[in-house]
Amino acid sequence: MSLTAKWSYPTTVRFGAGRISELAEACAASGIRNPLFVTDPGLAKLPITAAALKGLEAAGMKYGLFHDVQPNPVAANVEAGIKQVRAGKHDGVIAFGGGSALDAGKVIAFMAGQTRPMWDFEDIGDWWTRADPAGILPVIAVPTTAGTGSEVGRAGVITNEETATKKVIFHPKMMPVIVICDPELTVGMPPFITAGTGMDALAHCLEAYCAPGYHPMADGIALEGMRLVFENLPRAYANGKDIKARAHMMTAAAMGATAFQKGLGAIHSLSHPIGSLYHTHHGMTNAVFMPYVLDFNRKAIEERIEPAARYLGIKGGFDGFRKAVIKLRKELGVPHTLGGLIKGLDMDKKRRSLIGDMAIVDPTAGGNPVKLKKKGALEILDAAIAG
Q1: Dihedral (CA of 353, 355, 361, 364) sign
Q2: pTM of the full predicted structure?
Q3: Confidence class of residue 1 from pLDDT cuts 50, 70 and 90?
Q4: Who is most buried in 1, 250, 295, 357, counting CB within 10 A?
Q5: d(CA 154, CA 145)
């Protein structure tokens, strides 16, 4: 079966090895003549980035380069990008990289023509209607990891440094107009990043599937996404050059982000404050919390997990599924506790309480199958520390 396709759900996705060669044509198809190429400092130095930029040059396309994007991007990164996109009179953005570069690139494009502060567009109620749609630049998204699925999302996660909290900036027009998913771009990912981003994709699919509410389409996408992760993440981790496994993981990442329109949950709502305060890798933090959140939610999701386990070929219902998650984590070198992830973890009562407060107000908390109150959030946190 060929792993080349063209999808239009939720946006146009040009999928397949070698399709980065279509970057300049994708810009032209989107009406972009002078893009700002947004990436991170590490990627800016790599051959895959140089090759992408060379392709733009060969097509006679003018562009600007912005790479001041840190892991877990902060407001200052976005503000610097907005300044450059305006100064260069860029008419679109190419967001190239992992979740951080994709999120930053999308928010830069969104804010390019806005006059209100960025935090006025946080994903709360109908705040997105405050934006001027005419001021939003088109985005071409090019993921180089397989995890966040930000390439098919309508939001960007940006950290407010003043409060050390992650904020979701949302607008329907933040959805990239064209996505280029080229699994060859992920071949160079080191094992740690392969594992972390892959577990992020699994967390998206799992939490979307377990979220309450009626959304059979999201459920089906999430279920198949989980299958792709369980079958292909160990292969991609063991052999980074396995292009079929890389392709399937890139698919699973987009599927997870498509499915979680239904909702996320406590895995993410606890991972976000830990990431903000301790600067951990988001996907790896999700992976640490996963079994402890499964335990917390067991009574509410056990009946949901049993048919999922059967579809995935996992025996033993909920317990079998939980064992499969633990086995996968072990294969990927995921620490079993937060102390294994954060060296010298020192969490006093004040910091512990703060994490609990942050978790229950995180935008993802509302999708947890069991209503997440501070007591429950701290119960999960303590379990993730103790093991």
Answers
A1: negative
A2: 0.94
A3: low
A4: 250
A5: 18
